[in-house]
Amino acid sequence: PGIARRLxxxxxxRLQGYPDGWTDIPDYIDSKGRxxxxxxxxxxxxxxxxxxxxxxxxxxxxxxxxxQPGATLGSLFDGIGGFPLAARHNSVIPLWASEIEPFPxxxxxxxxxxxLHYGDITKLNGAMLPPVDIICGGSPCxxxxxxxxxxxxxxxxxxxxxxQTRIVKEMRDADRSRGRTGIHIRPRFMVWENVPGAFSxxxxxxxDFRIVLEEIVRIKCGTVHVPGPYPWxxxxxxxxxxxxxxxxxxxxxxxxxxxxxxxxKRIFLIADFAGRTADKVLFVSEGLHGDTAPGV
Length: 296
Hints:
The chain is an alpha/beta fold. It has 8 helices and 10 strands. The strands form 2 sheets. The chain has an 8-stranded mixed beta sheet, sandwiched between helices. A two-stranded antiparallel ribbon has the order 1-2. 44% of the residues are buried.
């Protein structure tokens, strides 16, 4: 008979593609002066909530190819620093992060010591943050997941997505007020990651993903209406173009084809607010960090 056992934290790190020991940190004092133990329970939770690193590396490799050397990144809903670590692997500088959980914050403070931490996303003003070329974020997925109660974007956690679009818009408006134009307005790129359940959640099936697309497009043009796919379902990949200076693409990536031993599907969405490079990032990247299957 087979033997069932719980994976070790080290094995979970490898499942997600992180360096061995990434979450293995000493006990610490949090921002409120409280002593905290770096328990295995905290490691399991943080790793379970994290992105698969090779997929993030693939996406940011494509974004980095579209920017000048020295490009910078801000990470919202940062967790244990998946996007910042992927950025560093692609010569992008992770400037700052927003996270509220003490253990993930301590992990990134130790592993990425030069990155600034700004805490609760709801208390941030994009105009006051250091401007960056890329803003990444995987807003909480619990209300979108097919394994949850499916409250959708109306839920307290997944509804935080709108904070990400708010911050992007505030930062871009501030850069525009400084006299920047065109490709020089920051951030040029926005990256959003979430569970495939976003394709089907909402009061009307699929309405939440339609809202996600519309909110992001309206950062560029506030009057645009994005129609839903009704009566059909959202496809696992697609794009939106506005003239020659806006493109948005999404694609559902399965981590098993990027070199990690697990099936983990996630939507990755890229918005380029100054050009038509989003499809190049997700569909035509010159190098891959893993093996691709047909149609993936």
